[in-house]
Amino acid sequence: MRHQKFTPRADYRLAEAQRTQASVSLAEKFQELKSLTVEFGHFSPEGVTRNSQIKYTVNPEFAKSVFRLDCPNSECIGGDYDLSEALAQTVAARESTASGEMCCQGWLSKTTIDRVHCHNILRYKLSLEYGVRAAKAPGELQAA
Ligand SMILES: [Zn+2]
Fold it and tell me: Which residue, 22, 29, 96, 128, has most beta carbons within 10 Å?
């Protein structure tokens, strides 16, 4: 029998928050990155949309390089979406946009741990702007 002050969900979120806080800023990790816009929508495991598309721009000076988005399932344990790797690959390739899909690997709820995965789907699009060393020509606008 384990004595826990927090639920597994709160424990996980706390650990992830600490990992994020401990990471360097995006500007520090990717020195040429001048701006990052993230657009995303959450979908159920069947691919049905759950909410409207969300879009926001982060300031690399303040945003952390552990770049994660919360799973919309309020019972989800050990999941969420970590876009850090996708972002690192996009910057390494000097691409101005990247889009993809991630499946939440957490558990559906505390009663289904080790049995049923959450598997919510995140579809995202990253739009990046680089500094003076950017290879892309200026004026290359992407339609939203
Ligand atoms: Zn989840």
Answer: 128
